[in-house]
Amino acid sequence: MKRDQPNLHAPDVSAGRRRFLQTGAALAGGLLLEIHATGIGIRSARAASITDSTAGNFAPNAWVRITPDNQVLLVVHKFDSGTGVKNALGLMLAEELDADWDRVRVIQPDDPLAKAYLHPLWGMHATGGSTSVSLEWDTLRRAGATARAMLVAEAARRWSVDQDACNAAASVVFHPASGRKASYGELAAGAAAGPVPAQVTLKRPDQFVLIGKERRSYRVADKVTGRAQYAIDVKLPGMLTAIVIHPPVVNASVKSFNADAVKALPGVRDVFAIEIPDVIAHFRENMPAMPVANGVAQPGVTIVADHFWAAQRARKVLKVEWGESDLASFNSDTVLEEMKKHVDDPGMKSKTKGAAETTFRDAPRVVEAVYSMPYKAHAQMEPLSVVAWVKPNEVEYWGGIQVPSRCAQAAESIAGVPRDKVRIHLTEAGGSFGAREGLHQILEATFISKRMGRPIKLLYSREDDVRGLYYHAASVHKARAALDASGNLLGFSLRAVVPSIKEPDDPGFLAKVPVDPSCTEGMRDDFYYDIASLDLAWVRHEPGFPIWWWRAVSYVPNIFAIESLIDEAAYAAGQDPVDYRRRALSSRPNLQAVLDRAAVLAGWKANNFRDIGAGRGQGVAVYEGYKSYIAIVADVEVKEDRSRSIRSLAWWTAGSQSIRVRCISNWRAGFSGACRPH
């Protein structure tokens, strides 16, 4: 059976500290594989100590350990905010390893800032962009297949049988002819003494028994029962709790506050203004310091107390006189109106094809619409929180830290501690949507800890988290479709009016890459419809309000505009929206497949929706994003009071690696979309 051979993506660079390998778990025997750019290596877990590498000093980007008690440990640096990253990575390994899923644990490395963990696309230590599965798909599957092959080889050696006569399942190797079997734990030490196969054969998707199947999520029981540890659960000797009161208007300075009255309250240790330097360390090593931008150094007053409720009680007594702000007259409605004035600007082209200008001029019919989206809060389940402990020559952090490079920036900028003296302890995280990629909460926690000389737990209340920074950018889109006499698509035009997301975080980026990729998702070469003429462009407009990445970044507004206009075109042509899309996706069979599947799950009835009930309609959308193919059908009911209820959603997604997920849910919510009652 021939299977595709994988590629490895991790850079081959020197490793940082890996104290995990020096713990007792790594010294008690078993099989330990290290995964790196040049392949998969082996370490004897019987060694008295396991340090960095020997010859060549190569750097693993993950470890697979099979213990004598039949446990499988995957040490991998990817952050999981509750979206299932650890679950997915563990399943990828366990699938090829033929492991018992109940015996697989996915844990973080001791040093998330090891150079081996640099994101290969971004040059920083970060998890994001829905890249974890795609980057590690081949790597972890190959590691699992390699470990399996070594375990089977060891069993065959012990039993003096041919390897091909053995098979494996649920962390056990079997020899059907003799009835003999041995667990992976029993075989691990012997397998560690054997050779590492240079090549392994990976499974075909139709052979998967774990991936794409109904399985319990990794550690879900711990989260349900409260055993999972979040930043709020961290307890350290001498630790204090801090909150920060930010100004009611962004960028307003602190003029004065009643420090004495607040300090006199029970449990309060100190009250002072936050002071962040004007220039901070770059998130990449060996780069010059960068100016503070995008609201990273917001003014504020911090209250440090023995516990959170003492700080919250003190907040009610605190009286701050705030200074002027350049955003005092900022109004989001005014911003949207101003953006609408630029929907016909030429902008920076992100994708062009054919003769769009001529196509629109000569088309028998043109359909167009303008769509706007307001600023949107992240509102993740767990408000931002982080623990920092600034010591004389070291800084430690605890929390759901999505971008470890932020800790390096904060330690260098605030504490004057180099990044190789930074330790990070990653906890669970209750959602992110981009919020945990931020720098401001880590800068603040570091500043407070340095001033107090104690470990500090910085907690944002729900109100602080929602009312404070950051937000997803407001945007305005103008979409146009040129139709022939039969209503078929001849041309498509889109203007996305939105501020740059990348430039504030990486000053100078647009001088090198003039079209911000974070603003043009779905409207570059990833535009998915087969249309002869295209004119897609980004119109940069900067209202001056700090913004940040937010779940799916620019796919949200861009795809909303594209799919809404496709619906308008289908309606104008008098054609079924599903069939209309299918014809325009002739070169995208995967998208056609998920569209067809979603329509079946939703009970879509082509050109005949009147029998589903008065005031009800169905809407459909499809797109390709982050190497996955997505189709959604919404069944919407408009009641007499004009409230909208989403009766059900049916969607079908197929990842680029053939991981498929079916989900049908029923829920009620406010709805804004392109569903049209028929």
Describe the structure.
With 678 residues, the chain is α+β, with helices and mostly antiparallel strands. The protein has four domains: 19-222, Aldehyde Oxidoreductase, domain 4 (2-Layer Sandwich); 231-325 and 384-459, Aldehyde oxidase/xanthine dehydrogenase, molybdopterin binding domain (Aldehyde Oxidoreductase, domain 4, 2-Layer Sandwich); 331-374 and 470-572, Aldehyde Oxidoreductase, domain 4; 576-678, no CATH class. The protein is built from 16 helices and 30 strands. The chain has a seven-stranded mixed sheet, with helices on both faces. It has a five-stranded mixed sheet with strand order 2-1-3-4-5. Strand 28 and strand 29 (644-655) form a beta hairpin. Helix 2 (132-159) crosses helix 3 (184-192). The longest helix is centred in the N-terminal third of the chain and has 28 residues, at 132-159. The protein starts with 30 loop residues before the first strand and ends in a 13-residue tail after the last strand. Residues 1-28, 44-60 and 655-678 have low confidence and may be disordered.
Low-confidence stretches: 1-28, 44-60, 655-678
Strand content: 25-35%
* CATH topology (level 3) name of the largest domain: Aldehyde Oxidoreductase, domain 4
Under the CATH scheme, which class of the largest domain? Alpha Beta
Mean pLDDT: 82
Q: What would you give as the CATH superfamily of the largest domain?
A: Aldehyde oxidase/xanthine dehydrogenase, molybdopterin binding domain
Number of strands: 30
Helix amount, in percent? 10-25%
Radius of gyration: 28 Å
**Secondary structure tally, helices:** 16
**Which structural class is indicated by helix and strand composition?**
alpha+beta
Main sheet?
A: 7 strands, mixed
Estimate nothing, just give the exact number of structural domains: 4
Shape verdict? flat
- What is the name of the CATH architecture of the largest domain? 2-Layer Sandwich
Spatial order of strands in the largest sheet: 11-14-9-22-19-20-21
Give the end-to-end Cα distance, rounded to a whole number of Å. 51 Å
